[in-house]
Every structure is written in C-alpha cells, then in structure tokens.
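Checklist before submission:
- one chain only
- standard amino acids only
- sequence pasted in full

Submission:
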Amino acid sequence: MSCLQLSVPLLAASRSKRTAVRCASDRQELFNRIAPVYDNLNDLLSFGQHRIWKRMAVSWSGAKPGDSLLDLCCGSGDLTFLMSEKAGERGKVIGLDFSKEQLSIASSRQYLLSKACYNNIEWVEGDALDLPFSNGYFDAITMGYGLRNVVDKRRAMQEMFRVLKPGSRVSILDFNKSVQPLTAFVQEWMIDNVVVPTATVYGLAKEYQYLKTSIDTFLTGKELEKLALDAGFSYARHYEIGGGLMGNLVATR
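Returned file contents:
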C-alpha cells in the first residue's frame, strides 16, 4: 500500500507546474486542527447518520466499476473509500483536499483497512479552485461538506464542470440551508445545544461555532441548482435529506 501521494500523473501539461494551494488560510488551519477527532465527532454529532447520507451521495454520482473518480475536499476519506468500492480494482479514485492533516489520516486509514480495491486510491493535496487535472477526465465527482467552505463557490463549480466527462455527474453533500423556518430553527438549536457542547469536550468549541456562520452564508437548494446551471451543467437538482437538515446537489454535465 502506498503512502500519501502529493503529485498527480494526470496533470495537463499546461497545468503541471501549479503546485501552490490557494485557499483561505484560516479555514485550512481549522481543518488541520480538527483532523484528529473529525471522524469521532461526525459519528457522535450525526448519531451515525452521516454514513447513510454519504452512501446516498455516492449512489447519486453514478460511479461504476472501472471509472476514474474524484472525491473533492475528501477529508479523512469516507466518500473516497465508498467511491473506491464502486470503481473496483480496475478503476481509479483521487481523494483531494487542502488539509495535509486530513490527508495523512486518510492515507493511514487506507493502509489499516487494507481492502484490495483501496489500492486504486491516490491522495492529492490540492485546491478545489484550481484542480490539477486535464479537461473531461473524470467519470464522476463527489464532494462532501466542502462546497460550503470554499472561498469561491462559482469557481469551484466551474472547475468540477471542466474536469468531468460530458454526460457525467457531480454529487455534492452538505448542510441544507433551509427556507423552512421550523427546519432552520431545529438546525440552529442542534448546533447550539448539541454540536458546540460536544465539540467543547474535545477543546474545539471555537472551531465548531464556525459551522453556524458557514450555513448562514451558504446557498439554498434553489440557489445551488442555479449555481450549477450557470457553470454549464445541463441539469441540476437539489435533494433535501436527513429531515431537511442536509442536502445533496446532483448535477449532470
């Protein structure tokens, strides 16, 4: 099993020298700090439901055996591993993130899980706003809890469109910015009374207080659909899941 890979053999010749990671440094540092407890907190805070939502996201991507797949903002690799199982040993999966700490954990999990198909995974430190891949390379893309955190959502969507093959899909899972007052109230109450107090136990209260702000400044389902269509996608639909607390955008190039 290979260790963490930071170079990509799939680079377009004109982009091969772009090694710098451009992102909001405060957000990058935030994800580096929470990396050691990220998986445990996900399980606790979602009561394990995040595993169901992630399987749904992968299913919506249309990934299949032998495909070349990309998991963007991969974190510790949950979606990447699920995509790997879809692609199989004949496929190829790239897990890309801007956090070295998250990628190190993902690489360690790849080694410990030691499943044959996971040999098809390569971990890449990179920028969602300047993907180091050639045009029309991937058969499907997933992105879990990442679009909300990028500094330029329009550019990120355009980059996903660029590296996707025609007719392929991107599946983007994230918190849902609900237009329903009751759902929005429940979501805010959960953050204040469950998420932040739980994170406090791990000494990460400040880091998880950021969550509420990031949702407040995020896009609604309809706005996400428009974002995808404006980027060039031919079809886009946003699904509310998890009782409306989560959402998944599916867009076809």
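Reviewer check: The two ends are 34 Å apart (CA to CA).
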